[in-house]
Structures are given as C-alpha cells and as structure tokens.
Design a protein that fits this description.
The protein has about 350 residues and is of the alpha+beta class. It has 15 helices and eight strands. α2 packs antiparallel against α3.
C-alpha cells in the first residue's frame, strides 16, 4: 500500500528542524521531498547594521560547530576589500584553529551516526575523544564553542612555546584512539549492515546537484578548496584529500574518519613551523572599502562562501553567506529513493546537516 510519511520538522532523531515527506510503497521509499526554513534568523540582514568587528561576533553564531569557519571567511573578504595582508603566523594560527574545528565536527558527526544506528558504545568512545579536541580548542582560544579567534588582519591569540608543546603532545595522543575508531568503523558488522549500500548518491548525481565537501568526496568527486584554490597559507602544508567511490553512508563514514588523520597532519606541520611574525596588524576598526569580495573556505561540511559588498563606510552594505548544507540538502531525496523507511533518519543525517547554517 502507498503511504505518505512525514519526518519532522521536529523529530527525536534530528538535532534541528527539517521536514522530509516520504512517499512509500510499504516500507520502501519511492520518492521524497525536503522542506527547510524553520530556523531563519535574519543574520544576513543584521550584518548590514554592523561594523566589521561586530559582524565577526555575529557570523560566528551562524553555526556553533563551524563558528571559526564563518569568522575566517568573512574576515578574508574584508581583508581582500581593504588590501590587508595577514602576517604568516596569524594565518598559521587560523589554520590550526580551523583544523581542530574540523576534528571536532567530524568526531561529533561520527558519534551521532553511531548513535542513530544503535551502536552506543562506539558513540561514547568517539565522543570521549571529541572531548579532548574541545579541551584543545579551549586551551588555544579560551572557548569551547564560538572561539573568537579571528580579527581583521590576523588572529587574536598567540601560541607560546609551552602551549605549542602541550598541543603537539595532545594531538599525538589522538592518533592511537583514531586508529581504533577507524578499525572499528571499517570492520564492525553492525556499522556495515546499517551503512553499506544505504543512501547511495552516484558521482553523476553528486556533480549534477552540486554536492560539496566530504559528502561529494564520498561519491568520488575529488574537490577540496584548501588544495584546489589555496588560501590562508594552506599551500604550505602537505596533506591528502580522501576520496571514496561507493557513494553510500559507509563511504561518508570512511571519508570523514580519514580526514581526521589529514587534519592532525596539518596541525602538526603548522605548530612545528610557526613563522616568527606578528599574529595580527593590531585590533583596529576598519572601514569596508567600496567593492565586492567573494572568499571560500573548506569548512568541515564543505565549501563555505561569503560575499561582502562594501560602500566605504564602517558597516557592511551587503553580506551573503552560502553554506555547505544548503548545497548538499537537495541530494537527500535522491539518496532516500528505494531505501527503507527505517534508514531515512540515518540517510538524512549522513550529509552532516546544519540547518541553522542553511536557514541563517
């Protein structure tokens, strides 16, 4: 028999509101529609009433998990408009914070994915390691969330020799648990049964629909802004971009797990080679010069874009934010088709959605 089954907008398996309407034949999903827009906060409009420093505080609150990504991308736009060159040490500290944030985001998602499939012991194990990453972020920035690490022209906090040694030791300590997490993720029967062949997004569909980030890389699309269009000194670091071709939920688990190793590699390189320059150009309130700037950053969920239009005053004339989840959400109906209703929550969660970002 045919049924229409609604999931959300408020649902115990989803952290944020989304409405998915499933058209089913018995237990099998034949088609689906996805509706967003339940979190709209008008942040882009508020940005037009704020100066550059106030906007940094505001855009950090687009998303709690990738707050540094938003502040960094906005700052790069203002720096581009004003012709500001960030000191190398400031860029390296920005990269360290960004990669710690990526670790935090991926650990969070991997834990939530295990929780959804009922593997709660794995969920606890992963989130125990996530806590270590959050401790590192707190030591580096003073905050566990909304790090306030970016200022126009550089970074707000420096890393002294003692902190550098502690960070290197803690990051190295992560490698053992990471090996164990990856071993379980790749070989555990429960994870394999719930993720292999589930929610497949083909490479053609991923490219046609504009999927980005780990979600696209799990479908064989070899893209990464850090490598393809280097910024913030990312071209100084050696790292690989994990790509898997199967396009199912299992591939998304594998890609994010492998990316954690690459983030650790980048953090170690940045800490071991911190340039002996200032970290910023001084905390000044700049005018936002006339013109338009568009900057991209490889956030944990994929390419994040900010466009800033300046009119020569202290306030933004226009700020436009394009977030990864907004680009990846249209793939959800294609992944849901011909899967079981029981897998719908996991498939939706497999894009690592942030609907606060999506709706802004």
């Amino acid at each position: 028999m045919s049924y229409i089954i609604p999931i959300g907008p408020y649902h115990p398996a989803l952290e944020e509101p989304i409405h998915a309407k499933l058209y089913t034949e018995g237990e099998i999903i034949k088609d689906a529609e996805v509706f967003v827009g339940y979190n709209h906060r008008g942040i882009e409009k508020l940005c037009t009433e704020r100066n550059a420093i106030q906007t940094l505080v505001l855009v950090e609150r687009v998303c709690g998990i990738c707050s540094h990504s938003h502040a960094l991308t906005y700052a790069m736009c203002v720096e581009q408009l004003n012709g500001i060159e960030v000191p190398k040490r400031g860029e390296y500290i920005r990269v360290i914070t960004a990669e710690l944030e990526r670790l935090h985001s991926h650990f969070l998602w991997l834990g939530v994915a295990c929780h959804i499939i009922g593997h709660d012991s794995m969920f606890m194990h992963i989130w125990d390691e996530r806590e270590l990453v959050m401790d590192l972020l707190e030591e580096l920035t003073g905050n566990r969330v909304n790090y306030a690490m970016v200022t126009i022209g550089g970074s707000r906090r420096d890393i002294d020799d003692d902190m550098k040694a502690r960070l290197l030791k803690a990051v190295d300590k992560l490698k053992g648990p990471m090996d164990r997490i990856v071993e379980i993720a790749l070989n555990d029967k429960t994870i394999a049964l719930r993720t292999k062949g589930v929610g497949v997004l083909t490479k053609d569909d991923a490219m046609r629909l504009g999927a980005i980030g780990p979600h696209a890389r799990a479908s064989g699309v070899n893209i990464d802004v850090r490598r393809d269009s280097p910024y913030c000194s990312y071209d100084d670091f050696k790292f690989d971009v994990p790509v898997v071709d199967s396009g199912d939920v299992f591939a998304r688990v594998v890609v994010r797990a492998l990316e954690c190793y690459e983030s650790i590699k980048i953090i170690e390189q940045a800490l071991n080679n911190l340039p002996a320059t200032p970290i910023n150009l001084g905390n000044k309130l700049p005018k936002i010069q006339k013109g338009t700037a568009l900057c991209r950053h490889e956030a944990p969920r994929g390419q994040l874009s900010h466009m800033v239009v300046g009119n020569g005053g202290f306030n933004n004339h226009r700020v436009s934010v394009h977030v990864p989840s907004y680009k990846n959400t249209p793939t959800i109906p294609f992944m849901l088709r011909n899967n079981s209703v029981a897998d719908a929550g996991l498939i939706i969660a497999s894009i690592d959605p942030c609907f606060s970002c999506t709706d802004r």
